[in-house]
Amino acid sequence: MARNFWNTLTIDLGPTTSKLDDYVSSLMENWYDKAAPSQTLSIHLRIGTGLSSNRAQDVARGLITFASRMRSINLEFCEPPEGEGNLTLPLVPLLSLPSGHFSALETLSLVNHDYMSDINLPSITAFDHSPLLRTLILKSYSENFFIDDHLQLPWHQLTYLEIWGELTLSALSAAFFQSRSLRTAIFHAVEID
Fold it and tell me: How far apart are CA 52 and CA 84, in angstroms?
């Protein structure tokens, strides 16, 4: 009998309890175990404000463990309910992944729904040495997400760039002019400050 493989995982990591945290951890371990060993992986993580710092660190460690097999990563950070603060805790471990591990990454999507975020995010360098990265989708309504030199990427090799949201003119210029191999550039509702 042929073994069933599943190489794509989409998971909503919203408010969690310790019991649910254990379930999420088991689900990710099961996914890694069931994925075809010679195939690349795709993951879509939808991260809510209730995600504990420990769970965010576990998810980040899981991504690094299988980083060399990740073909597509979609990190979606959800807007917190009114009055519940910001996404500082879940964001930091996932955006502070070490550089140079995502050698198979072709598509990266970073979505930040935290419209009112004014937190200082770490420099994002995890994807700066991804030789196959060609597609980048950035959606954010927080200017902090697109600060100049904040997002370290191999811009020169991108062939598809899609940007939604608010950014500075210098960040837009830097992203656009560094992307010398672009075939498609799409800018939706871009607000320039």
Answer: 14
At 6-65, the pLDDT tens digits run 677 777 766 555 555 566 667 777 777 777 777 788 888 777 656 666 777 777 777 887
Can you read off the two tokens belonging to residue 166? 């608010």
* Amino acid 21: pLDDT: 57
Contact indicator for 154, 130 with CB cutoff of 8 Å: yes
Contact 153, 175 (CB under 8 A): no
From the list 174, 148, 153, 65, the residue with the least C-alpha distance to 109 is 153
Phi, psi values for residue 100, rounded to 5°:
85, 15
Contact 121, 96 (CB under 8 A): no
How far apart CA 60 and CA 40 sit, in angstroms, is: 18
Residues in Cβ contact with 32 at an 8 Å cutoff, skipping those fewer than 6 apart: 62, 65, 66
Q: What one-letter code names the amino acid at 89?
A: L
- Confidence check: pLDDT of 80 > 60: no
Task: Report pTM.
Answer: 0.82
Tell me the three state secondary structure of residue 60.
helix
Q: Helical H runs in 35-187?
A: 53-65, 88-95, 169-178
Average pLDDT, the chain: 75
